[in-house]
Amino acid sequence: MSTQRSVYTVAQVNSYIHQMFSADPFLTRIYVKGEISNCKYHSSGHIYFSLKDELAQVNCIMFAGNRKKLNFRLEDGQKVIVFGSMGVYEKGGSYQLYASAIRLDGIGALYERFEALKSELSEMGMFDQMYKKPVPHYIKRLGVVTAPTGAAVRDIINVSKRRNPGIEILLYPALVQGEGAAQSVARGIRLLDSHHVDTIIVGRGGGSIEDLWAFNERVVAEAIFNASTPIISAVGHETDFTIADYVADLRAPTPSAAAELAVDDMVSIRSGIEQDRVRLRNQMTQKCAYVRREAEGYRLRLQAKGPAGRLRERMMQLENLQERMTNACRARVDGAREAVRALNFGLKMKTKIRETENLLRVAEPPLRAAMRQRLQGTEGRYRVLEAKVRMLSPQDHLNRGYAFVADSRGKAVQSVSSLVRGELLNITLRDGSLGATVQQIRPEGLQSQSVK
What we know:
Elements: H1 10-23, H2 25-28, E1 30-41, E2 47-52, E3 57-62, H3 64-67, E4 79-89, E5 94-104, H4 107-124, E6 141-146, H5 151-163, E7 168-173, H6 181-194, E8 199-204, H7 218-226, E9 231-235, H8 243-247, E10 250-251, H9 255-262, H10 266-305, H11 307-392, H12 394-399, E11 404-407, E12 424-429, E13 432-437
Parallel strand pairs: 3-5, 6-7, 6-8, 8-9, 9-10
Antiparallel strand pairs: 1-2, 1-4, 2-3, 4-5, 11-12, 12-13
Helix pairs in contact: 5-9, 6-7
Pfam family, one: tRNA_anti_2
Function: Bidirectionally degrades single-stranded DNA into large acid-insoluble oligonucleotides, which are then degraded further into small acid-soluble oligonucleotides.
Catalytic activity: Exonucleolytic cleavage in either 5'- to 3'- or 3'- to 5'-direction to yield nucleoside 5'-phosphates
């Protein structure tokens, strides 16, 4: 008798394993730390990545709903701690970690503290622009809170003295790194604020996040916010941002830049004043010259409008009128002379016209007789020419019974030798024309049938 064995499908096995994972409290709420690799942000909003250490790795997924709680961007190589639950992807037969929350491990914890304090102070309004005090110009006393040695303090002093050799610098030698650094920086801010300096620079040189951490403490932020003196933050390099940078009235990327923002360049200012003085002098010179020209113009106009000027103007007007009257009189006299000449010429012409009329009356009868004789002779010659033309006219010949014969091309037929049998002819008579066909040709001296 054989023993019957149970056989399961792949789906049943994967489902059973999934139930085991779901029933295990150790796997439903678990923290796993490792290094991020193969991180991919999907268009759906999910994040797919692997978590690995020196010995193994596990596939992970963070759904879009949980991603909203992530306050930094996942990147390959980051050391993180992932909180979530282990589950089985039944279709693929693989297990993976479903991440509910992720935080950075080690340094990541400092970033979390930084972000938490930043968010809290922002909600309190300590970063609001309305609380930012303007940094004054042309300051005489500059307060500096930084380490007494190092590149930062040297840069601040050198730049400040170069821009304004007469400036007074009050340095508070503070701890900027390690235990008690935050309290030391805060004391320096409060002390310099009480000494009524014009502007305070708070800063240090570059370093890691641990080195700069004193400027991320609440006590420093509160000291900056409560100070009545404008404060410039100059912590680290341009890429470094601290809580002090957000609270300060003005942020500088470096300590040297902070000195340039706090201290005006008096050399450039003096040069600008000198340029303004020269420009103002030139403008005043031009203005004075313009006023002189205007005054001279007024003087000339006043001179022209005075009694002597008006008298000269009247005398010129009188001379002009006198010249115009003289010219008008001359013109009238010349016109009268021309009229007299025209009258004399008219009288002479009338006399000549009368003499000519008398001559015409005497010559008219013989001229008329000669014209009649000439016309009669011309009329006789015309009648003779008319008779000759009629005798030469083809129509006259047609009227006497003759005919005009032309071939098919319209050319006059002058000899029977130019015709052939069957050729078409056009015969013109006195009162019309007709067509004919050559049936037989009869040269002179031979008898033949007539042409039809």
